[in-house]
Specification:
The chain has 184 residues and is mainly β. Helix content is 14%, strand content 43%. A hairpin with a 2-residue loop joins strand 1 and strand 2.
Amino acid sequence: MKKLLSLFALCALVVTAGFAQPAKEEVKKAPQVAEMKPAFDKPGKVVKPVLQTLETAEEVEAVESADGPKMTFEQTTMDYGEIVQNSDPLRVFNFVNDGSEPLIIKHAKGSCGCTVPRYPKEPIMPGENAVIEVRYDTKRIGPFNKSIRLTTNVQEQPIMLYIKGKVSKAPAGLPAAPSNLNGF
């Protein structure tokens, strides 16, 4: 009887050890599938789909962060160059929402009162283009380097835009053009 109980205990130990899970360090996370990509034999001719897997945490994070709104600008720094005092103060930053959800600009603020941004108040749908208008007070003579801070629903916060340039004194004898900074 003791031999029979010992045999059952041994069997139970073997079965338990077989179902035991390895330590956390030993567990390798299965690679995540990013997408099916077609393989091309000749330009335009699909041979077979290729399964692309993601092995590193960085690759997984990059694919996961692709969701949501995304604000892509043609340029984030606008150079006025050298302009004459009281010149046209308006410059435009073009952008596209190339994300997967509507983009909402909650607020835009210039680094000082001489830089006034104007932004769309309605959501920008995926694939749509829009603009941020910026007016700099061109009555001020001298070099300038200002920033515009955008608060949005994009993950990478804040989004910064920059303007720079130099305002030179208007030549004598020319009438001063009125500059209406807030007169959109």
